[in-house]
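G.,

No rush on this.
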Amino acid sequence: MNSSVIVFPGSNCDRDIAIALEKMQFKNKMVWHKESKLPKSDLIVIPGGFSYGDYLRSGAIAGKSLIINEVIKAAKSGCLILGICNGFQILTETGLLKGTLLRNRNLKFINSDVNIKVINNSTKFTSKYKSNQVLKINIAHNEGNYFTDKDHLNKLKNENLIAFQYCDINGNISDQSNPNGAIENIAGIYNSKKNILGMMPHPERMVDNLISNTDGINLFASIMN
């Protein structure tokens, strides 16, 4: 499979995701934000980091960059799009995903390994996971507090568009297991067609037992499959 990773000024997880993709045998290309054309891509990744220094608000400037027009076209044609952390924020800024990412409820940057539950494992991003499987994944963000309006929240629930929710080690979803205040403990969501996934946790950091664990591998294996 061919993948493309979009790189912005301030991106700092672009190489991490590239290494994870290459480990899983993707043929990957790095695409600078000023490019006007995308390589042939089965998967486009918008990585984490602090695009444009998070000026104005997280993802706001990146959402207007030149290459994003091509990402939007690819998304509408059915290409798989994965936005991680700042990438999730950028996806909401472009309107490819609804909702927004607010500041963490404690108003502090969080860098921690947390537990998330796989809510929908019948997508191209999660088919290698078991339903309700609990993963240990790293988060590192200041604005990870997902919020959306009541109608969209109901749609997320009714159409099974919630990808992951924060939970404890036993899979219990509660306020105590919510690190940032996200509504309904939401850690990741899909669009209606389920070809776009935005998530705050970093699966690319969990692909090697030597430095963390391998709980992120099956996300990339699902896409490859």
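When you get to it, here's the other one too:
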Amino acid sequence: MPIKTEKISGNDAGAVLADLKVLSMDSLASFNVLFEHISGQGLKIKELGNSELLSLFFKILISIDSELDLLRENPNTASRRSYVSGTEPDSIDYINSLMALCRKQNFNDILIAAIIETTTLDQSLVNEKKDEEIIKFKLAHGDRLVKSGIKLVVDYMDIISSLDRSGSSLTRLTPFIREKLSMSEIFDSKIDLHTVPIAELQERFQKMDPFLSGDRVFRFSEGRFFPAKIGPVRPVGKFYGFPSAKEFFRKYLAAFSEKGENFPLLITSLPGLGKTHFTISYSLYFQNLTLILCEPHELEKPLVDLIAILGKRSNRRFVLFFDDVDTRKIDWYYFRTNIGGSCVLPENITVIIASNYECPANILSRGKGFAFPFFDEITCQEMVHDFLMAMGMKSPGKELVSVIASDYVEEFGQHIFEELSPRTLVRYLERYLSDSVKRKKVMDQSRQDVITSPDAMCFYEANQKVIQRLKDSV
């Protein structure tokens, strides 16, 4: 929607400017209550997820407040906003910078998320059964800031265009500004914040932003997010072998964490090689990433709403993880449409899909693929070697590595383990670490003249059986 350009009379302009001055003072007062605090250097803006955007918004409010005073003294100064009148930035400069930072997001959504974030910082007072009126006091200011602050910016642009006699009509202003500065409110205007129970407000917070709890792992089901309880997460330093996989996951998630590079990642491997563990551990290794565990069937639903919800929270980065997806049976229509199709994935969201089966070619072309190598006798010994290094051995002998790998394969042959895989090898190594008798026995065997080696054919046959079971499970 374009900025209004109808010219207005001097008397009408004076009334409008007076109303805008009231909006300006209200907006600055509410901003101060919500986002400013005293430091050794005076008033500073709180360190929140969107501090840079908030700082720009504050500069816009200050600039407009100052420029309103000039306009009330001399309406002809409106024409100055149509061109650069000095070396110091003005309201138009700050608005253009704000719009650039917002990118494809609506600033109202960002502002409301910041208000809820700063308000919930005071929930500790409620938890300590102190004054819950502080939260309601801040929410009232937040609601006023959303209404008056956005209205101030939009109406100020209109009055500038109306008063500008040069005919330039704010050609410096970023186009489509109204699309990113639409009017909105936190709560329905009929709600009396003073009478609403604090528990209801907290429930509203959670619906608006379920990630304020500080949890970093959530399950997504039926359109809602739930904090997820997962088992012990293996640190990235405790992954043994598979150097190419470790390097790939580290680079991929580092690029997403630091730069927002978010091509979908499509992982394939036989069961038990580490698809799930690698994804969870490396996602949580980067502190600014939040992991969303999605059910496979969610891929067959429209993803636009899910993407829109998470895309609004630009101060967070989300990894959408779809595990155990049967790529042969899934309907990829919405994935093709919503990811890499007509819907551009916001840079704060990436998608990881893990499957025991290969993805179709038209799906692989939309992202990055990674296939885990087969688990064979060589990979098994690499894992054992890395494990011994992690135990503190500087240079594990190949004899000891070979004997440990052989002992593991022998236990598999005795049906102690149901599969030959990194998953069961880790369980074997954990038991090896806690069993001093076994460690001594294996060490003695590694010093003998004849050293046993893990049977390559055993790995081959085990892999073939797994592949056949996967083929049969149609």
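The first helix runs from residue 10 to 35. The CA atoms of residues 400 and 446 lie 5 Å apart.

Enjoy the weekend,
O.
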